[in-house]
Amino acid sequence: MRDIADRLSLSVKTVSGALTDSNIRMSDETRQRVRSLAEELGYRPNEVARGMRTGVMPIVGMLADGLITQPFATEILRHFDNLLRTQELAVIVTSIKDRGEVDKGIADLRRLLPQHIVYASMYHQPIDLPRAVRKQIALMMNCFDVHGDIPSLVPDEEAAGYQAACFLLQRERRDIAYFNLPGLIAGELREKGFRKAMDEHGVAIEENWVRPATRGALYSGSARSLVRPTISAWFEGGHHPDAVICGNDRVAMEVYNGLREIGRAIPDDVAVISFDNQVDIASRLDPPLTTMALPHREIGRLAGDIITGRRAAPEGLTRIPFRIVERKSV
Amino acid sequence: MRDIADRLSLSVKTVSGALTDSNIRMSDETRQRVRSLAEELGYRPNEVARGMRTGVMPIVGMLADGLITQPFATEILRHFDNLLRTQELAVIVTSIKDRGEVDKGIADLRRLLPQHIVYASMYHQPIDLPRAVRKQIALMMNCFDVHGDIPSLVPDEEAAGYQAACFLLQRERRDIAYFNLPGLIAGELREKGFRKAMDEHGVAIEENWVRPATRGALYSGSARSLVRPTISAWFEGGHHPDAVICGNDRVAMEVYNGLREIGRAIPDDVAVISFDNQVDIASRLDPPLTTMALPHREIGRLAGDIITGRRAAPEGLTRIPFRIVERKSV
DNA sequence: ATGAAAGCGCTAACAT
DNA sequence: ATGTTAGCGCTTTCAT
Fold first, then answer.
1. In chain A, where are the structural domains located?
2. Count of CB contacts below 8 A, A vs B?
3. What is B157-293's CATH number, 3.40.1080.10, 3.30.70.590, 3.40.50.2300, 3.30.70.260?
4. I need a surface site. Which of A19, A45, A58, B89 has the fewest CB within 10 A?
């Protein structure tokens, strides 16, 4: 910078002003001369020096609540990062395994003077943070602040459940079964949407066909699965489902196995629809799975727009719609 | 820092010395006094100021060649990050979509004065970087420098192929078929290991049973699959395989579908073994899939140890062994 | 419209 | 063994 100033016989301050603050009063000519020389010399401002002076680095910190564990949720990170990169902002991710690590995570991030700190979760859940912490978090992705203080971006689970059910109903499926994800917000809301759709279409729900996918109060991939026995039970009698809504794609994978075992064809005998769109699974099942895609990309992008100020932060909860991916299972 | 100095009637320099450089000559007592007061005050050095002075920030940059796209490869990142975190180092990931973005990626990273820049790939591949770039990269993960200039950590594919074949051979399978991943280093080396094992055990390879999993010169998830027709062909005649080695877990998923279609039971009629251990898939297949787990965790950890200097950087290529995950398909 | 100078918090050379 | 001082590259008053 001094170099540029000397060559142009200007002061450092003028150069600084020309390069950064375009509101500062200055002759256009001077500004142009400075800028073009800077370009020519390939001048890159020292972000660290600038950061020291201004107290802020071109960095956004992300508290990742298990995000990196759940591989397909990294989609959120990917698109968030892509957007911030266009604004010359770097993302620093700090994984936290449990809520107790939040303080440490924030402290770690703050050492580098980030412009903002965001919180992202691997699955849709309510987050209850102490007030002092809440004030430091600009945005929540794929989860929400129970106090409503922090703008939060979450998938619109209920609409997705509604849409999935409508999709089946419109294709003349009436005997719809539902494998729920116990203990999860996503499960609860998706089921609610399902019930609403059935209700609106005047189709009665066979309560015996609305069952949890796993044993235990909380759905988890490692919990004992109830899919196989439940399917067997459903198809024992004469009256059985002609469609199954699956809590997520992994459940759908088991439903495929179960239906195959009892010799039912998808989609001819039984249609299957699911949630998440975990592509490695959904596109490779046989037949390929029709599923409601989680709006991870949209969440990441919208968050990026908000953080960079290109879009105003909506207050409270913002629900982002799913997108249906039609394959061959319905 | 000045605060501490004043309270102890010491100079700033003494405080700085006491806190950072433990080699500096100083009375132990002074050092202790400084440290305990710092602790008491919850003093945290301003990393940015320090960075400006020393020209280095407590940051490691990672050029992620598609890493975040291939969800399960983020395992590498996760463990790398975990390790660096214990040394108060933050990781900044810059995704690059193609080799042409490397320069830009490095420039972006350097703005923040990272201590090192590492290169990580989503799949095992040779990387040819210009010399000027090579000099700036400290380590390659899951890929290697074709010039041998950069220490590189890669999965030991050949050993994995060898081990998978031995696993089958020891269980009395002799008629082993192999679905290869065309155009990939991983595929080539795994096949080599397979051939070596067969050779050592004196079992002849039926060349007709060594086939590519997809059409085209390069394996890819979206390429037209050859699994189904190939399996049909193999099992048409009387002499057919009693085991299949699959290029990866996604291929295995298709092999399951194919075998099921022609009514062959796994593992009774045909054993299946695979590579990668993409858990969402492998553990949920029916029966759960026995597979050679990619050493992503080990690569991430070892890289962390090297970057933090806890372990010396091995020269050239280091091959990290796979781990077999025995489930029910063999 | 531009220049001079102070100072962000820290480290390192030099002095005592 | 400890203190003094300069300065890292930038932004920001305050003068001119």
1. 2-45, 57-156+296-323, 157-293
2. 112
3. 3.40.50.2300
4. A45
| Residue A232 pLDDT > 90 | yes
Report yes or no: B95 and B156 within 8 Å, Cβ to Cβ: no
Closest residue (Cα, C1') to D5: B13
CB nearest to B74's CB, from A49, A71, A254: A71
Nearest residue in chain B measured CA to CA from A96: B82
B5 CA to D1 C1', in Å? 15
Give the minimum alpha-carbon distance from A96 to chain B in angstroms, rounded to a whole number.
10
Separation in Å: D15 C1' and A43 CA: 29
Q: What distance in Å separates the CA atoms of residue B173 and residue B192, rounded to the nearest whole number? A: 19
CA A228 to chain B, closest CA, distance in angstroms equals: 11
Strand C: list positions under 7 Å from protein Cβ: 1-13
B23 min Cα distance to partner chain A (Å): 25
For chain A, give the longest Cα–Cα distance: 92
Q: For the segment A52-75, what is each residue's pLDDT rounded down to a tens digit?
A: 999 999 999 999 988 676 767 788
Select the residue of B59, B113, B284 nearest A253 (Cβ to Cβ). B284
How far is B128 from B105, CA to CA, in rounded Å?
Answer: 16
**Distance (Å, rounded) from C-alpha B45 to C-alpha B160?**
47
Picking from B77, B221, B254, the nearest residue to A68 by CB comes out as B77
Q: How confident is the model at residue A18 (pLDDT cuts 50, 70, 90)?
A: confident
The CATH fold of domain A2-45:
434 Repressor (Amino-terminal Domain) (1.10.260)
pLDDT in tens, A267-278: 999 999 999 999
Instruction: Give the CA dihedral A166, A167, A170, A176, nearest 10 degrees.
Output: -70
Residue of B nearest to A86 (CA): B108
**Residue in the block written with tokens 């091995």:** B314
Count of CB atoms within 10 A of residue A312's CB?
9
pLDDT above 80 (res B193): yes
